[in-house]
TrEMBL record:
<protein>
    <recommendedName>
        <fullName>Sulfotransferase family protein</fullName>
    </recommendedName>
</protein>
<dbReference type="InterPro" id="IPR027417">
    <property type="entry name" value="P-loop_NTPase"/>
</dbReference>
Amino acid sequence: MARRVYLHIGAPKTGSTYVQNVLWNNCAALQEAGILLPGSPVAHDQAMADLRAASWRDTDVYWTWDRLAEKANSWTGDVIISNEGLGAATGAQAARAVESLDGAEVHVIAAGRDLWRTFPSFWQQSVRARSGWRFGAFMRAVEEGRAEAFWNNHTAPRMLRRWGDLVPAEHRYLVTVPAPGAPRDLLWHRFAGILGIPDGVCELAEPTSNPSLGAAEIELLRRVNLALGDRYPLRTPYQKVVHRHLVDAVLKRREGVTFGVGLDRADWVRELAEQQIKELQDYPCRIVGDLDELRPTVMRQSISPDDLDEEQLLQVAVETIVGMLAHADALSQPPAGDHDNVNVLSRLRTRAAGGVKRRLRLATRREP
């Protein structure tokens, strides 16, 4: 049985990619220190989708939540399970997850980020998960109280109520995401302090992130999602095709124009932030960081993807097609070191083609 299991449940776009990269890049060193990351990043992702019984999950994958829990339960030290999609589990699903950990001391870690940055991040993540709704429609839904998925899946207070209530108050943590301009390794040190990872165990590479797409790029992807219709309805095929050949290969590499919430909503966002801070002040958990970091500090005017004209989008679409052609060409090139084999194969094909032509000429000559 594991001694302690740390469940890092999200939310998305709170630096989880960076934290997970450090963990997985140092998983061997962590295991030597008595801390296990069971399976692989893919295992944690598949187990999350299985736990949530998500409609987009692939049903024939190897890793289920029970299999991941069994792997965790076989370890005698500490265990870390990290996936930002876990926070969207229902209360019953969260309870099942905690109960499956065989009596280990379970700790729940959620992360929070200021709403000014969270709103556009949530909408972008939804589009990158195959949604087709417009940014303006999403913002109006939040204003009108019709965006429960946002509050449930992307904000710490509700995540902590579903997950944190299952463990003692001293085993619940809220990590606040540092404001822009803070030291880049500060977020890692906050997590490492909770997880009990001593300094020097993990090598910190240059922080990496899941880069945001620009206004035109994310609007183009939204329209592609609509045009796909019922093709690639499941998550893995969509990622293997659309993410691999469009998002990762081309759109992420473009220098797009940042989009966000307009200044006309600044006071409303500030008010929501204060409400969220009050909720967290009243909720018994350990704050790692500072709740002040949930107040927006840099609020600038920005465009909405809805405001782009068709000529701008057409230009980006053409440039994206050119980028995808270059990507396709690179995929068609032989790997380094295979040129000799390719040349031999090419000569054989040429020789075979020449033989076919000679036979055709001979056959033609024999015709009366």
